[in-house]
Design brief:
225 residues; alpha/beta; 6-stranded mixed sheet; 4-stranded antiparallel sheet; 10 strands; 33% helix; 28% strand; membrane; ATP-binding
C-alpha cells in the first residue's frame, strides 16, 4: 500500500533521512520510534507531500506521491487523516463544528455533514460533548475530537504524530485504544512516538529510526533503542 523507496531528505547538506526503504501493507499498525530529531516526523511529512524528498520516491498504492502536481495534493490528503500532538482544534468552534468544518472545506453537502459528524463523534465516544468548545474539554477529549476530524473523510491511512505527547497516562491509553479500534476496522495506522511503554505494550510492528536511518524493523517489536 505504502512504499518508501530509497528515500533521503537533506536540509542544508545535513541528512534528516538517509536511504530509507519501507513497505507498509494495507491494514497494518506500524509504530515508528526514535528519539526527538531522529527523523520520524520528517518521514510522515513526506508521505502527505508537505515536503519533498531530496532523492527517492514514495508510492501510495501505484500513485507516485513525489510526482503529484500541487493541484492534486488535496485529493491525496483526503486519503490520509492526520493527528498531531497539539490537537490543532479551532478554539471558537464546538467539537461538532470542528469536524463539520473539515468537511465544509472540501465541499461536502449539509446533508453529508449532518449524517457523518454524529457517527464519528459516537465512534470516539464524544456524542454527548458535541456542543462543547475545546476549552471545555479535557486534553484527551480534545485529542479524540482531532481523531474524529481525521476520520470523517473515511481515510485509508491515519498518521498519528506523537498524539499522546501532551496527555496524562489515563488519556494516553484512551487514545491508543481508540487507534487500535480504528485499525481493527481496516484503517492503516502509522504511529510516531518515543513513548517506550506504549510500544512495548502494543506488540505491533515497530520501525526504529536513529539519526535518519532505519536500524530495526520487527513484527511484534519492542522499543530497544
Amino acid at each position: 500500500m505504502i512504499l518508501f523507496d530509497k528515500i533521503s531528505k537533506a536540509y542544508n547538506g545535513h541528512f534528516a533521512l538517509e536511504n530509507i526503504t519501507l513497505n507498509i501493507e494495507q491494514g497494518e499498525f506500524v509504530s515508528i520510534v526514535g528519539q526527538s530529531g531522529a527523523g520520524k516526523s520528517t518521514l510522515l511529512k513526506l508521505l502527505i507531500a508537505e515536503e519533498k524528498p531530496t532523492s527517492g520516491r514514495i508510492f501510495l498504492d501505484k500513485q507516485d506521491v513525489t510526482a503529484l502536481p500541487y493541484a492534486e495534493l488535496p485529493f491525496l490528503r483526503r486519503r490520509i487523516g492526520t493527528i498531531f500532538q497539539d490537537f490543532k482544534l479551532l478554539s471558537q468552534k464546538t467539537a461538532y463544528e470542528n469536524i463539520a468544518f473539515a468537511m465544509e472545506v472540501v465541499g461536502k453537502s449539509k446533508k453529508e455533514i449532518q449524517e457523518d459528524v454524529p457517527q464519528v463523534l459516537q465512534l470516539v465516544g464524544l456524542e454527548e460533548k458535541a456542543k462543547q468548545f475545546p476549552n471545555q474539554l479535557s486534553g484527551g477529549e480534545q485529542q479524540r475530537v482531532a481523531i474524529a476530524r481525521a476520520l470523517v473523510h473515511q481515510p485509508d491511512i491515519i498518521i498519528a504524530d506523537e498524539p499522546t505527547g501532551n496527555l496524562d497516562p489515563l488519556n494516553t491509553w484512551d487514545v491508543i485504544r481508540l487507534l487500535l479500534k480504528i485499525n481493527e476496522l481496516g484503517t492503516t495506522i502509522l504511529l510516531a512516538t518515543h513513548d517506550r511503554e506504549i510500544i512495548n505494550t502494543l506488540n505491533k510492528r515497530v520501525v526504529s529510526i536513529d539519526k535518519g536511518k532505519v536500524i530495526r524493523d520487527e513484527q511484534n517489536g519492542r522499543y530497544i533503542l
